[in-house]
Write a structure and sequence with these properties.
By secondary structure, the chain is an alpha/beta fold. Helices cover 39% and strands 21% of the residues.
């Protein structure tokens, strides 16, 4: 049965935090959603946690994959929703997230909707918040990055297939490449919601934290593939805009004592 929005969770050995992630889906005030969990043959209790949780997936896949973005492609290819998103198995959505996102999509012809993101500790406490910034396509080309977080991003099924989905040849930055391919398109309409929609958990085993050097190298490759030429003056200008908007979050990040992104 077709649903309004599909949420995909890729996971491998995620028993430590996936219950918290599923709890955040169960608490959604908007209920016309489809939940798809794609497990890469976890060797821990991940599947046991998923199968015993009250928020049972509509689709559960457990098979060997070629990495997170291969898992995402599997899940999103099966998704029935008009709108799509994914959340990692250690992150969370806010209880109102799907309700606000669907209302925003339905208020205009948006291709992508995004909001702010909370960075949370291992225990789930909010450390600081970063605000998304709704820049135009040329500004984003000069900035050379997406000015909002994947955890707070939602897109239409139509734009997902038009842009070819996630490049599974990339191991760390396929989400950045996908979101940039949307944001660099001058025909795309973006909608901003001024609330935290997603929560990114910072911990020592985090995918992002553990592979920072390799992520940087792959991001450089991705920028070349998208023909994002360096313009230091323009980049500095737009970085300053994002930093002014996020001055409070930057201060809290600098003074935060736990694991950092």
């Amino acid at each position: 049965m077709s649903r309004t929005i599909s949420v995909v969770i890729p996971v491998y050995n995620g028993e430590e935090y996936i219950k918290d992630t599923l709890d955040s889906i169960q608490r959604q005030t908007f209920r016309d959603f489809e939940l798809i969990v794609v497990d890469g043959l976890s060797k821990d209790r991940t599947l046991e946690v998923v199968r015993s949780h009250a928020q049972r997936p509509d689709i559960l896949i457990s098979e060997k994959d070629e990495g997170m973005y291969d898992a995402l492609r599997k899940g999103l290819d099966l998704a029935s929703g008009k709108y799509l998103c994914y959340i990692n198995a250690d992150d969370r959505l806010l209880p109102y997230t799907l309700e606000k996102v669907v209302k925003k999509f339905e208020s205009g012809c948006y291709d992508i909707v995004f909001g702010d993101v909370n960075y949370i500790s291992e225990t789930g406490a909010i450390a600081y918040t970063y605000k998304g910034v709704n820049l135009g396509h040329q500004a984003i080309r000069n900035l050379r990055r997406v000015p909002f977080a994947q955890q707070s991003s939602f897109w239409t099924r139509e734009i997902y297939h038009r842009k070819g989905g996630f490049d599974k040849s990339l191991k760390y930055s396929a989400d950045s490449k996908f979101l940039l391919s949307i944001c660099l398109d001058p025909s795309v309409k973006k909608g901003y919601i001024p609330f935290p929609l997603g929560e990114y958990r910072m911990h020592g085993n985090s995918f992002s934290v553990s592979v920072t050097d390799r992520m940087i190298a792959e991001h450089q490759r991705m920028k070349k593939e998208l023909d994002l030429a360096e313009n230091n003056v323009a980049r500095y200008f737009y970085e300053m805009i994002t930093k002014v908007v996020n001055a409070r979050g930057i201060y809290k990040k600098l003074t935060y004592k736990g694991t950092k992104f």
